[in-house]
Design goal:
Blueprint (H helix, E strand, L loop, with lengths): L1 H18 L3 H6 L1 H22 L14 H20 L4 H22 L6 H11 L2 H9 L4
Helix pairs in contact: 1-3, 3-4, 3-5, 3-6, 4-5, 5-6, 5-7
Amino acid sequence: MGILFTAGCALPVWSRMLAAGHTVALWRLAGPVVLFALLAWLNCYSIECWESRPEHSCTGPHRPPQVLAQATLLAVAGLLLAVLVAPAQPRSAALLVSGAAGALLLALLDCFSQRLSPVALRAAADLALLTPVLLASLVWLPQ
């Protein structure tokens, strides 16, 4: 699901870039697109995890912290990649940081999952995917 959603978002942009002959710029988006696909997958996984357990949490004294660990790993990977590409690709780095922020929001939701209703968790998890929109205005300002 995450791959299909991301493909639906990225393919129109990639096709326009290819038509305009911006093949080098096309590859600059590969990292953010992969991170967003993983974030979309984590969103679906988190919702399934929270809703499949009566206590609405994948963490606890007898279970490994599945969502928390995976969200944290994704956030750290996104931030590290952003630091690596920032000097050469500041716009891609900004997208990576926003994706990492979305992963951190999912980790935070997992920590508070026992306090929220399943509907609130589902809505908040979907809102976490919108974090790249917050930086979009900064990313595409003229440089």
